[in-house]
UniProtKB/TrEMBL annotation:
Its cofactor is a divalent metal cation. Keywords: Lyase. It comes from Streptomyces lusitanus. It is an enzyme of class 4 (lyase). Homotrimer. Catalyzes the aldol cleavage of 4-hydroxy-4-methyl-2-oxoglutarate (HMG) into 2 molecules of pyruvate. Also contains a secondary oxaloacetate (OAA) decarboxylase activity due to the common pyruvate enolate transition state formed following C-C bond cleavage in the retro-aldol and decarboxylation reactions. It holds the Pfam family RraA-like. Its EC number is 4.1.1.112, 4.1.3.17. This is Putative 4-hydroxy-4-methyl-2-oxoglutarate aldolase. The gene is ligK. The keyword Signal does not apply. InterPro entries: LigK_PcmE (IPR014165), RraA/RraA-like (IPR005493), RraA/RraA-like_sf (IPR036704).
């Protein structure tokens, strides 16, 4: 367990070129290319349609109903970062809104992923500041208890280390370990190229049954067709 009340200023961020490469791919592609790892639980959703982000994680461990550490984290944000916040226990309060978004944007943040609540959704949409959250809630928070910044956190069942790459879109949120960023970007590109070939064959009317050689295994298991 982490000590509470710690801010790590030094973060070993993923290579910017690898982050840029990953930003071209959707969450489903990245997740598959990484070996079906890294997905956050599907209850983390974009707070407005069309939100998407890709960047390096500045992590936050929050206490329930208390957003103090988000203000502490803002100082540690660099251009291209995504703030990723977990909580010591489940909480759906509105930890984050338009004022904090304005602050984070001024620091160069690409967005926020939070296993908690978010508010001011219309303002965030107008700003186009992407937020992926557990809930939308107008309930306010206090600033009274210490958490930590830039420690490993578990967010919606996914382990996030400071500097990991976060990719989020309409399909969810995936975490790519910093050390694997370049390799996963390459695997994602290969996967997309292979999918384009399949897409062409599907467009031409070919069936997955034939493309993937499924008929034999289905017959072996006893699938029968009745007219």
């Amino acid at each position: 367990m982490h000590h509470l009340g710690v801010v790590h200023r030094t973060v070993d961020r993923a290579d910017p070129a690898a982050v840029e490469a990953l930003s071209r791919f959707g969450v489903a592609t990245v997740h598959e290319a990484m070996g079906r790892l890294g997905l956050m639980r599907p209850y983390i959703r974009p707070v407005y349609e069309g939100a998407r982000l890709c960047g390096t994680a500045v992590t936050v461990l929050l206490q329930p109903g208390d957003n103090w550490m988000l203000h502490v984290a803002a100082e540690q944000v660099c251009e291209g970062d995504v703030v990723v916040a977990g909580c010591t226990t489940e909480s759906e309060d509105g930890f984050f809104g338009e004022l904090l978004a304005t602050s984070l944007r001024a620091r160069g943040a690409r967005g926020l992923v939070i296993d908690g609540g978010c508010r001011d959704v219309d303002d965030l949409r107008r700003m186009d500041f992407p937020v992926f959250s557990r809930a939308v809630s107008a309930k306010g928070t206090v600033k009274a208890t210490l958490g930590s910044v830039n420690v490993p956190v578990v967010v919606a069942n996914a382990l996030v280390n400071p500097g990991d790459v976060i990719v989020a879109d309409a399909d969810g949120v995936v975490v790519v370990p910093a050390a694997r960023a370049a390799e996963v970007a390459e695997a994602s590109a290969r996967r997309e190229a292979a999918e384009e070939g399949k897409r062409e064959r599907f467009r031409a009317g070919e069936l997955g049954l034939d493309m993937y050689g499924m008929r034999g295994p289905l017959a072996e298991l006893g699938l029968t067709y009745v007219d």
